[in-house]
Every structure is written in structure tokens, then in C-alpha cells.
Specification:
The structure is a single chain. With 720 residues, the chain is mostly beta strands. The protein folds into two domains: 454 residues, Porin (Beta Barrel), CATH 2.40.160; 116 residues, OmpA-like domain (60s Ribosomal Protein L30, Chain: A), CATH 3.30.1330.60. InterPro entries: Bact_OuterMem_StrucFunc, DUF5723, OMP_bac, OmpA-like, OmpA-like_sf, Thrombospondin_3-like_rpt, TSP_type-3_rpt.
């Protein structure tokens, strides 16, 4: 009888142990994946991460991450340092009707990441993954020692059961590219395509499962139904053969992601070569804030080589008829199999990952991460992750990084871990600290591995002149790119660089392009201060001359050769008529301004001229002036000289004796004779005009002798 009760207990516990759900999957390498120098591992959480990577190449040799978690039993791992056996003795249990147990292993095999150029990166990886979980198990059953008492009634209600145990391998390729690089805004995207090879798979999908035992009748009544699928061979007696096979289904999958970076100080990471072309510092993290989003594990494992066996558990039978040491045997021996079909395809644990990374400075960062399941836990043979929210402060540099993730793991609670990357080695845990210092540890994870990182070279600019050291001809001293990074020389030490100095070997001021000022006219005044640099001059006139010495420099002196007064702008006024000589037509004789400084010819003067002119005597019938008239001509000349700007006509007149033609000619000849005499004595020819009127303008009657004498005359009249 005791054996029968043990069979029954094994059946129930077996149902619980096989009832697995793939709830923990992507919680691998916790803390390490946020590290900007983690290389090829970064594709696990977001394939876009490897674009613009801090590594030229990253070769992962081997790495492993394992995680255990449950909500049934809590350990005090510090007891292990005193007495290992006491860890289990002092463990606390938290039985409920829906306890879970989970185990995950993630092996990163030989993998490589290559940064092709500034925009693109490529990765190829191998990965093996295995998950075992127990979910919604009735932990109260595990509390019973020695099974159930056949003399007492008991009842077990498990209700619905679902779960899976899956092992598979991945061969993946990732391509990531920069999509936007616009000063402060930077966006990159990535895609992973992966080929999946199934190795082993088991799942359960049950509903309405319960068991009632009646001690009086010794009958067991079971209810419900259950789908049980696995890749092991099951014989007619329910014996399971080899469950793992490296040809157990084939699948395809994909990951996709985007990463945005805010780079407000982007310009400080852009340097130059000595030819002036720009180069970006790919060895430095350039963001102040980074935001990432990705969806991973999109896909399925198809053609899983196993069988799906559907059992009807609705039955009442005597406990003595129960048989079978393991679950499959118990189901075959005790219940009706309704169907036996091909195993269902396995759906990957599709998940959403969001990430925010804040750069506190070039070494310290604060990361906020969320992993959220996108699949249903209750869907048969479907993977699903536990939601996790994680805050990770970290220190990172090229060869060394520390991180301490603090997280809330769904169903487990608070986790606190630590990790380290030291050159090619990486190891850590997302829960090691909470496990060591907590008294009630329900989860523990560990990871470790070795890789060969080849880092991007940081651009060095020792002299901060914007030109990288290896391109800088003077790396220790700042200089412009126009001079290949070297400072410009100042050969003559005049403060003007040779490139701007027109007189490299002779000191001179900057205002004169590095040349000394000249004194072209050698007047002791430098050309820069000399308003007349080509003509010697005086200091008081800024180097300009004053030729006539009248205190007015030539450039402002209307009469630079003749001394004059300031009120007359350097010109003299000899006759004192207020009109300067240069503007005075009669500089020696005072006259009004409206007559250009010359005296005006009055009527009295005009009368005097004609009184003199009428006394001019000619030889009879000729134009020859008689000698006795010379004194009269001198008087006329004196009058004309008193009015040097006045113009006159010399008019000849005759009486009517003789022909008019002869009289006309005679009048013209006598007028010209007087004109020529005046010109010969210094009167300007421009002032005189001769004209003969013959007998046309008599002054008196030609009938008398006295009248004819008056008509024979010469007149000198002012031209108005």
C-alpha cells in the first residue's frame, strides 16, 4: 500500500516538475550588455548597438551566463561560508498554489564583431540556449514528508498547467548602420537574422487538473486533461529514450533595434588632419543621453521532432491499480491517450527592450533598462520572459569597467549585483550582492567569459589645436592647420607673424603689415603721419609744405607761391579793394567787386577820352597821326591804363567832301592807325576794336567849314 501511495505522489510531483514555462530568457550577462565596450555581446539586447562601436573588432572566444530563480524557497548564502549543509537546513519556504522555479543557461560561442567604417558594422555569432522552468506549481505538495496518509481523505487542485523545456542553438548575422548624423542628433539602426537549430523540447498544456482521494473506498478520482510533448522516444510502456538530438527542428528568427544619441558637444569630438579634412573620434563616447528600443527573438522553431500526446485524466479507480515510477509511465499505465500527433512548433520568447543611458562624464554612466515580454505565458510551447526593470550605475573605460545593477525581477523581487570587465575577461552577476548580503535569496545568476577586444584608437590632440597628434607637425605646440599644426614664426620679433609680415626680417608695426614706416620725402615725418608723404613739409602742417611762408600750407593756399592773408586763403590784395589779386582783374588798382576789382569808366571819363580823341590830328587826306598829337595819345593811354579791364571801340569819322567810298576807307584807316598806336604803347589788343563809319555819323552840318571840321574826328567809346 505504501508503494501505491508513493506512485501517486510521484505522479503529482512529476506533473509539477514537468510543468515548465520559458519565463526567463533574455536576462543574460546582466550589467555587461550596457557597457559600451562589450562589443559583440551588445547585439543580444539591441542589434543597433554595434554601429559606431568603440571597438574596431571584437572576438568572443567563449562566454556563459546562467540564472536560477524561484519563489518557493529562499536561502541565506552567507551560511555557506560557515557550513555548506546549513544552507538547506536554514532555508525558508513559501509554498503557494502557483510557485515557480526557473533555470536559464546562455552560452556565447565563437563570435566576431567588425566595424566596417564610420557608418556600418557587422557581426556574426554562435550561441547555445537552454531553459528549464516550473511555473504555477502547487508548492504545498512539496511540504508533505513521506507522501500521503492512506487513512485520510485528501484533495489536490492543480487546475491549469503549462510550460516548456527548450534547448537550441543559434547562428546569427547582424548588420547595423548610422541612419542620421546631424550635429547633436544621432540615430542608428540594426537588424539580426538568425538560423535556429533545435536540440530538445518538452512542454505541457493541461487544464482542470485535480485529484480527490476517498479513504473509505480507497478510490482516487482525477479530472482534467493534459497535452504532453517532448522530443524523446516513448515506447508503449511510457519509457522515454534520448531526448536531446542535434537535429531537432529548424527555425528562423530576427532582432531589430534603434538607438538615438543626443550629442550636444559633438564638435569637440571632431578633429582635423593637416590637410584640413575632418575626422571623428571613434574611440570616445560622444553622447550625453542615449535612448534605445529593440524587439528580440521574433521567430519560431519549426518541425520539432517530437510527439504531442493528449491524455484524458477524467477517471475514478482504486489506488491499488496505480502504477508507474515516472510521469510518462504513470500516464500510459493509468489514463486513456486520446491522440498522438506531431509536436507543436516552438515560439521564441519575443521581448521588448528599452534603454536610457545618461553620461555623467566621460567615465561614469547611469543606465535605466526595461525588459518586457511580448508573448503570453499560457500559450502552449511559447517562450516568455520575466519582466525586469533595472538601474545600473557604472564606470567604464577602454580596458576596465565596473557596474552594479539594481533591479526588480518579476516574481522574484529585488536584485543587486556587480560585474567587472578587465581587458579580455568579463564576469559578474545581476544578483550576487543581494544573494550574499540578503537572508532570503530566491534567485542567483552568474556569467563569465573571455574575448579578444581590438579598440578604436582615440584621437589625441595634445596641444588642443584641433589637429590630431599623428597628423600634427608640431604636436606639442598649438598651430593652425594652414601651417600643418605648427605656430607661425615671427622672425623679426615685431609681434607680426611671418605669414602676415611684409618685412619678415625687419621689425615693424602691425598697422604697416610688419614693415617699418618710411619717410619718403625725408622731412623727418613718417609717411603714416605725413599728409604729404612725397613732398617735404613742416611738422605743424603734418608734413605738408608752405612755399610762400604765409602760415597757410600749400594744399589750402590759393596762392601757394605768393604770401597772403588767412582771410584771403593765402592770397594778397595789393590794391586793398577786398578782392584778392588772383580774382582781381585790376590787382594794382582798386575797383568794385561787381567789376572784378577794376574801376568803372564813368561818363566823365568817357567824355575826357573823346575830348582827347577829337584833337588827334592827321595829315591831310591821310591816316598818319601828326607828331603834335603824340601828347594827346599819351593822355589817352594813361586813361585806358586806369581801367585795365574796360574794352573800347576806336571809331573813325569823316566829313562829306569826296566820295563816300573814299571817306569810308579813310575813316577805317584812321581808326586802325589810332588802335595800332595804342597797342604799340602797351594797351592789350583784346581791349580794342577799330571801326570806320565814314560820313555816316556827322556831329554837325557838312555845309559849313566849322561843321565839316567837327565831323572829321576819332572817338574812343566804352564797349558795354
Amino acid at each position: 500500500m505504501e508503494n501505491k501511495m508513493m506512485y501517486l505522489r510521484k505522479l503529482i510531483v512529476g506533473l509539477l516538475l514537468i510543468s515548465t514555462i520559458n519565463v526567463i530568457q533574455s536576462q543574460s550577462y546582466i550589467g555587461f550588455l550596457e557597457d559600451n565596450y562589450s562589443g559583440v555581446h551588445r547585439i543580444i539586447s539591441n542589434p543597433a548597438n554595434i554601429a559606431d562601436s568603440r571597438l574596431k573588432m571584437d572576438i568572443n572566444l567563449a562566454g556563459i551566463s546562467a540564472l536560477y530563480g524561484n519563489d518557493y524557497i529562499g536561502f541565506n548564502f552567507s551560511d555557506a561560508f560557515a557550513d555548506y549543509s546549513s544552507v538547506f537546513d536554514n532555508a525558508k519556504t513559501y509554498p503557494s498554489t502557483d510557485n515557480f522555479l526557473a533555470f536559464n543557461i546562455d552560452v556565447m560561442g565563437p563570435s566576431v564583431m567588425l566595424s566596417i567604417n564610420e557608418k556600418s558594422s557587422l557581426a556574426v555569432y554562435t550561441r547555445g540556449r537552454g531553459i528549464f522552468n516550473l511555473n504555477e506549481a502547487n508548492g504545498n505538495l512539496l511540504e508533505k514528508e513521506g507522501g500521503f496518509d492512506e487513512d485520510e481523505d485528501f484533495s489536490i487542485v492543480e487546475d491549469d498547467i503549462y510550460g516548456s523545456f527548450t534547448v537550441w542553438g543559434e547562428l546569427g548575422a547582424t548588420y547595423a548602420r548610422v541612419l542620421l548624423n546631424d550635429e547633436a542628433h544621432f540615430l542608428k539602426g540594426g537588424l539580426t537574422a538568425k538560423m535556429l537549430q533545435g536540440i530538445g523540447n518538452a512542454y505541457i498544456d493541461g487544464s482542470g487538473i485535480s485529484l480527490d482521494y476517498d479513504s473509505n473506498t480507497r478510490e482516487v478520482t482525477t479530472t482534467g486533461n493534459i497535452h504532453l510533448g517532448d522530443t524523446g522516444d516513448i515506447d508503449e510502456q511510457g519509457h522515454t529514450g534520448e531526448a536531446l538530438d542535434f537535429d531537432n527542428g529548424f527555425g528562423i528568427g530576427a532582432d531589430i533595434g534603434l538607438v538615438y544619441e543626443w550629442r550636444p558637444d559633438q564638435s569637440q569630438y571632431t578633429k582635423m588632419k593637416k590637410d584640413g579634412s575632418t575626422v571623428v573620434d571613434r574611440g570616445a563616447n560622444k553622447y550625453k543621453l542615449k535612448l534605445g528600443v529593440s524587439v528580440t527573438d521574433i521567430g519560431k522553431l519549426f518541425d520539432v521532432k517530437g510527439r504531442d500526446r493528449f491524455y484524458d485524466l477524467n477517471r475514478t479507480q482504486n489506488i491499488d491499480n496505480f502504477d508507474g515510477d515516472v510521469l510518462e509511465e504513470a500516464l500510459v499505465d493509468n489514463f486513456n491517450q486520446i491522440s498522438n500527433t506531431k509536436s507543436r512548433d516552438y515560439t521564441l520568447p519575443t521581448a521588448l527592450h528599452t534603454n536610457a543611458d545618461l553620461s555623467l562624464n566621460s567615465k561614469f554612466y547611469l543606465n535605466l533598462n526595461a525588459d518586457i515580454s511580448l508573448t503570453s505565458k499560457s500559450k502552449p510551447n511559447t517562450g516568455s520572459i520575466l519582466n525586469q526593470y533595472r538601474l545600473t550605475p557604472r564606470y567604464e573605460s577602454k580596458w576596465l569597467a565596473f557596474y552594479s545593477p539594481i533591479s526588480i525581477l518579476g516574481g522574484v523581487g529585488f536584485q543587486w549585483g556587480a560585474g567587472l570587465r578587465l581587458g579580455p575577461l568579463y564576469l559578474g552577476s545581476g544578483s550576487i550582492l543581494s544573494s550574499l548580503f540578503g537572508e532570503d535569496t530566491k534567485a542567483l545568476d552568474l556569467y563569465a567569459g573571455i574575448k579578444i577586444p581590438i579598440y578604436q584608437s582615440k584621437l589625441r590632440d595634445k596641444d588642443n589645436d584641433g589637429i590630431i597628434n599623428k597628423e600634427d607637425d608640431c604636436p606639442d605646440v598649438a598651430g593652425p592647420v594652414e601651417n600643418q599644426g605648427c605656430p607661425w614664426k615671427d622672425t623679426d620679433n615685431d609681434g607680426v607673424l611671418d605669414k602676415d609680415d611684409d618685412c619678415v626680417d625687419v621689425a615693424g608695426p602691425e598697422e604697416n603689415n610688419g614693415c617699418p614706416w618710411k619717410d619718403s620725402d625725408e622731412d623727418g615725418i613718417l609717411d603714416k603721419d605725413d599728409k604729404c608723404p612725397e613732398t617735404p613739409g613742416l611738422i605743424e602742417f603734418n608734413g605738408c609744405p608752405d612755399t610762400d611762408g604765409d602760415g597757410i600750407m600749400d594744399s589750402e593756399d590759393r596762392c601757394p607761391e605768393v604770401p597772403g592773408s588767412k582771410e584771403h586763403r593765402g592770397c594778397p590784395d595789393t590794391d586793398g579793394d577786398t578782392l584778392v589779386d588772383i580774382d582781381d582783374d585790376c590787382p594794382e588798382v582798386a575797383g568794385p567787386v561787381d567789376n572784378n576789382g577794376c574801376p568803372k569808366v564813368t561818363q566823365a571819363v568817357q567824355k575826357r577820352l573823346n575830348d582827347y580823341a577829337r584833337t588827334i590830328l592827321f595829315d591831310t587826306g591821310k591816316a598818319t597821326i601828326k607828331p603834335e598829337s603824340v601828347s594827346v595819345m599819351v593822355d589817352i593811354i594813361q586813361i585806358l591804363n586806369e581801367y585795365p579791364n574796360a574794352k573800347f571801340t576806336v571809331e573813325g569819322h569823316t566829313d562829306s567832301v569826296g566820295s563816300s567810298e573814299s571817306n569810308q576807307k579813310l575813316s577805317e584807316a584812321r581808326a586802325n592807325s589810332v588802335l595800332n598806336f595804342l597797342i604799340d604803347e602797351g594797351i592789350s589788343s583784346t581791349r580794342l576794336t577799330a571801326i570806320g563809319f565814314g560820313e555816316e555819323k556827322p556831329m554837325a552840318s557838312n555845309a559849313t567849314r566849322a561843321g565839316r571840321q567837327q565831323n572829321r574826328r576819332v572817338e574812343i567809346n566804352l564797349i558795354k
